[in-house]
Amino acid sequence: MKMYRPFHFAKHFATGVLLASVALTAQADQSLWSLVWASHDQAKFLSYSGLLITESGKHSQTSKLLHQATAGSEFEVLERLDGQPAKWIRHNDQIQCVIPDRKMILTERRHTSIAFPRVLAGADGSNSLEKLYTISEMPGRRVAGRAVRVLKLTPKDDLRYEYRLYVDREKKLLMRSELYSPQGEVLENVGFKEISFEPAMIENPSLVKAGPGWRTNSTEVRTLTSDELSYDLPDLAFGFKKADTVCRVKSKDDQIHQTVYSDGLSTLSVFIQKVQANHSMPQVPMSHGAVMSKSETQGQHLVTVLGEVPEKTLGLFLKSVRWKSQ
User: CA-CA-CA-CA torsion for 85, 100, 108, 64, nearest 10 degrees?
Assistant: First the structure.
């Protein structure tokens, strides 16, 4: 028996080293996930302004962003600097789109949304991410002249894309976000070209009031209950959790239902409306950078799924609609 003791000792030692390595890896991963959650919070609680560059497919957009945080309140202005002039103003969950050339102000209450530099799609978005993505840290970089940590979020299936998040080392704010296809192609990236954490603050920030000659249009959006729907959608599908279903009313006979899903990071929407005579049906999936959409007629309704997800995911959600009657 004595001759086997070194073997047993080596075996137990190796097992102990392996378990310790697994524990250290889990601890390191949790530290990186904590940085993701912190980045999301910082986007709400910090005040900052800067120049944003967004590249999606062949399209590039330059914008100016101001985010002003006060006790329990957020005020944000995003102004497009190229193309048709437009400005988006957000005060907490109220959002306006101001179009100067048309003297038009569009107003809507935000229900579920994610916008750079916010990372997560909801307050509980962190609950599922570790089950759907693996996280690792890549070599550090610089964005807008500031040192950042680079986090790589790799999906565990083929129903979502890879994310790379560039998080400021000091402020823990997301400075750049990139979306990658399974082939390693950059589908979309958005990030600061310039940034200041001491912006000129706006006194008494508020939404814009329409002046003489200006028109306003407020989209009626109301939350729907399952009893009001002629169809069923799963509460949880393929790692995506249902946020809510709302009805966007254009006219009495033209109403669009939108159900928002999120896995905590990626989002998609299922749109359902009655088929109209003037509807044109896309014959193939449409794509714009990371955003893809796919439509099909189901009985008397047109169903469209749109989001920053692969085509396979769109198809699965189209098949998930269950009609109570047609």
Answer: 40
